[in-house]
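WARN  no MSA supplied for this record, continuing single-sequence
INFO  ligand: tetrahydrodeoxyuridine
INFO  echoing inputs
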Amino acid sequence: MSKRELTKAEIEKLIELSIKAKDKAYCPYSKFHVGAALLDENGNWYTGVNVENASYGGAICAERTAFVKAISEGQRKFVAIGVSSDASEYTRPCGICRQFMIEFGEHLQIFLIKPDRSYLKVILKDLLPDHFKL
Ligand code: THU
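INFO  complex generated
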């Protein structure tokens, strides 16, 4: 897990990709579009959206979609993820996503991004202190 600071250009890309990804959300039930952009340690980018289901519990959040894409490509180390929605407040990762992401490192930088592109950076371990480990 890299604790390095993102460059200005990387932050811009994180914002851009997560906002763009949001348009592809499949959310006919909640109508709450979420987009995520994940940066791995090798400089690769993965986007994700929330994908809902008629069986509501089958929904997967944008953050996990991005992680699953990356992990299934063989990546295991991540630097940052951006999360965008249309809400005027920051959209914070749900409890399941926090546990899911912390499996791959507690120092992940999470950029909560508003539609006006303003953002709040938080560190995953601060969102999920004393997390479960086997
Ligand atoms: N959702 C995400 O994709 N990420 C979050 O951080 C919060 C919630 C999705 C799940 C569901 O499809 C919709 O937003 C409403 O909860």
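DSSP finds four helices and five strands in the chain.
INFO  checksum written, moving to next record
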